[in-house]
Prior knowledge:
globular, Nucleotidyltransferase, domain 5, 7 helices, seven-stranded mixed β-sheet, 12 strands, alpha/beta, five-stranded mixed β-sheet
Amino acid sequence: MSYLLVDIxxxxxxxxxxxxxxxxxxxxxxxxxxxxxVLLDEIPMVMAEWRRxxxxxxxxxxxxxxxxxxxxxxxxxEVWPDAPEPHWISSRAEQCGITNGYLNPAALGCDRWAALIxxxxxxxxxxALVVVCGTATTLDMLTTDGRFVGxxxxxxxxxxxxxxxxxxATLPDAPGDYVDxxxxxxxxxxxxxxxxxxxxxxRVFFLHKxxxxxxxxxLSGGAARSLGPRLTIEFTYVENxxxxxxxxxxxxxxxxxxxxxxxxxx
Length: 266
């Protein structure tokens, strides 16, 4: 028995196979059996990896990439002729113990919603600043009692660097390194953007820590490994936080992949 969980972002499709565990004291991360990722333009490549796996009991997908990826994903799922219909999630007013504070709950990105659910499942009843570092960097605040009260979005680390190249005449589009005192332009760009990302995270963290002294910072996403060493606050790194949330959603679904709580259908 297994769940296939798929996180489709702006650049990558990430997937994981999780085994449901009954009354397990272990965190959701311990149930992960396999992971993979491909660029959106290379989605058909997952078929070779999925073909060797048993048919999943449930398929749960979060996508922020629009409709252009739906058909390639559905074709990839055809490696299992008897696979269940995929459950494409959307943000809801309440789910898995999280209350959505957006003015229009459905307008919250479903990846952010899944990340909040994943964070709650991993740290329990603690306040959390959930930071996901992808094409965009999102900073979402979750209170002790499970309320998402709002969050911010800014360009991700790579997007910041590319914007400097694209909107200036002389700044190069080349990789640089973070150094304390940059003495060449590529390193100055890498260092400046890293400071901008880290400074934003720490500013928001200390802003909310006034009201939540036990606040935890949860860090995830492709650029999180680059950002983490720049932070002066303590944080917990979770490699696939959205998939952790999708696991919780998959486990909450009833027979046929329908939500089990009243008034919570997508």
